[in-house]
Design goal:
CATH topology of the domain at 73-188 in chain B: Cytochrome Bc1 Complex, Chain D, domain 2
Largest sheet of chain B: 2 strands, antiparallel
Oligomer: heterodimer
Helix content of chain A: 40-55%
Structural class of chain A: mainly alpha
Number of helices of chain A: 11
Strand content of chain A: under 5%
Mean pLDDT of chain A: 89
Low-confidence stretches of chain B: none
Helix content of chain B: 40-55%
Number of strands of chain B: 2
CATH architecture of the domain at 73-188 in chain B: Orthogonal Bundle
Mean pLDDT of chain B: 85
Number of strands of chain A: 0
Radius of gyration of chain A: 25 Å
Shape of chain A: extended
Radius of gyration of chain B: 27 Å
Order of helices and strands of chain B: HHEEHHHHHH
Largest interface: A-B, 26 and 27 residues
Strand content of chain B: under 5%
Order of helices and strands of chain A: HHHHHHHHHHH
Distance between the termini of chain B: 90 Å
CATH class of the domain at 73-188 in chain B: Mainly Alpha
Chain lengths: ~220, ~190
């Protein structure tokens, strides 16, 4: 009887024994990597919006303060998106016949809000509050990047839990004097660590409990 | 083998959970909701509703009017903090059109918005504070109302700052503290 397994079978067996797990690991690594990639988390990807609203134009070009549109950011958990009326304070007179602004005018007439595509969206089991961060000296730019340079808004942070925790462990590394919170051009000073520790004391930043699970998962 | 199967089942179940927890079944602020006619989950306040502690009885403070006549006084004493706070509000909400000094030359006006009158006009310098309150609350001509974004207290602070701006544009050297005068005179040269 001829041999059932040729010599080649050894190689195949080895390939299966070692290659199988290797392939499995590789697939895992690819899925893991893909899950963290900018493509999947949509970091740095401008999204389609009903109106091509440009922060670069309105913030950098025209010098409008964040709070003109995101009014509640200092008082509430929610920064809030501007109502159609807010756009119309200017666009009732400026570019009032421009076709790009047709959805704004339609919304103003019908009372149906414009449906912006959300850029940042935490899972619902996470509690987040803007007002405390802004009032204690964490800038919009620290979390949202240089919004004033974005012709269409994109995400600069995938919002992993690790990222929140990194700052909650060492908030002094990211604090600014409160009056600089809305300044997009602010440069991190060289003595950040000393300044930061001073700001922690001045603004009564409570570091205790900042990394406890129930702070964010309530 | 048993362990492997349990792990597999558990992981499948837990990924199932994740979805439900990530997008929970309640209405979020400003989300889309077809149930309501305007398609928005955030409901407008029904007319004539009074929220707790928002009776707003004080017509002087909340309307800038007493018996239908514009008030000429502030509802509370003006403090330095109030003016500083008003400056912040003015720079956010008004300066884009009225300019940082109130001259009516803000950035949006430079881009073609019809120019507002200068806040330093004699008419506006003489206008009662209630008039400013009314303009911010209800709008004026082509200027939209700002009541939904600027609270009554913030409106009074902004008006206090406008008064300070008006004074600053019509002050002379005699209004400056003697100690500071010399400083200013040398700075001019």
């Amino acid at each position: 009887m001829a041999q059932l397994f040729k010599k080649r079978a050894n190689v195949i067996a080895r390939l299966i024994i070692f290659g199988g797990p290797a392939l499995f690991l590789a697939i895992c690594a690819i899925i893991y990597g893909f899950g963290r990639s900018d493509f999947w988390t949509r970091v740095d990807n401008p999204l389609n919006q009903p109106v091509p609203f440009s922060h670069k134009h309105h913030v950098d070009g025209l010098g409008i303060d964040c709070r003109y549109c995101h009014t509640s950011v200092e008082q509430s958990s929610f920064a809030g998106l501007p109502s159609t009326e807010t756009c119309m304070t200017c666009h009732s007179q400026i570019w009032k016949d421009a076709p790009v602004l047709e959805p704004v005018r339609a919304s103003f007439q019908t009372g149906r809000p414009i449906q912006w595509t959300r850029v940042y969206d935490l899972p619902d089991y996470v509690y987040f509050d803007h007002s405390i961060h802004v009032n204690k000296g964490v800038s919009c730019a620290t979390c949202h990047g240089r919004v004033d340079e974005m012709p269409i808004t994109w995400k600069t942070q995938p919002l992993y839990m690790r990222w929140c925790l990194d700052c909650h462990r060492h908030p002094e590394e990211n604090l600014r004097p409160p009056q600089e919170v809305f300044d997009m051009q602010y440069q991190r000073p060289e003595n950040q660590s000393t300044l930061g520790r001073q700001l922690v004391l001045e603004n009564h930043v409570h570091q205790q409990g900042l990394t406890d699970c129930y702070t964010c998962h309530r | 083998m048993k362990l492997l199967v349990t792990a597999l089942v558990l992981s499948v179940i837990s990924t199932g959970c994740r979805k439900g927890m990530v997008n929970q079944q309640y209405l979020k602020p400003l989300a889309e909701e077809e149930f309501f006619k305007d398609g928005s989950a955030s409901r407008p306040i029904p007319p004539h509703t009074v929220a707790r502690s928002h009776l707003n009885e004080d017509a002087h403070f909340f309307e800038g009017k007493i018996d239908g006549r514009l008030v000429t006084t502030f509802p509370a004493p003006v403090t330095r903090e109030m003016i500083a706070h008003g400056r912040e509000g003015f720079d956010i909400y008004c300066a884009v059109c009225h300019g940082r000094t109130g001259a009516g030359d803000g950035m949006i006006v430079q881009r073609g918005f019809p120019p507002p009158p200068s806040l330093h006009e004699e008419r506006l310098r003489q206008a009662p504070v209630g008039h400013f309150f009314d303009v911010i609350t209800n709008g004026y001509g082509i200027m939209y109302p700002y009541a939904s974004r600027v609270t009554a207290a913030d409106r009074w602070a902004i008006i206090a700052y406008i008064r300070a701006l008006q004074l600053s544009q019509h002050s002379t050297l005699d209004d400056v503290e003697p100690a500071e005068r010399e400083h200013l005179q040398t700075a001019e040269k």
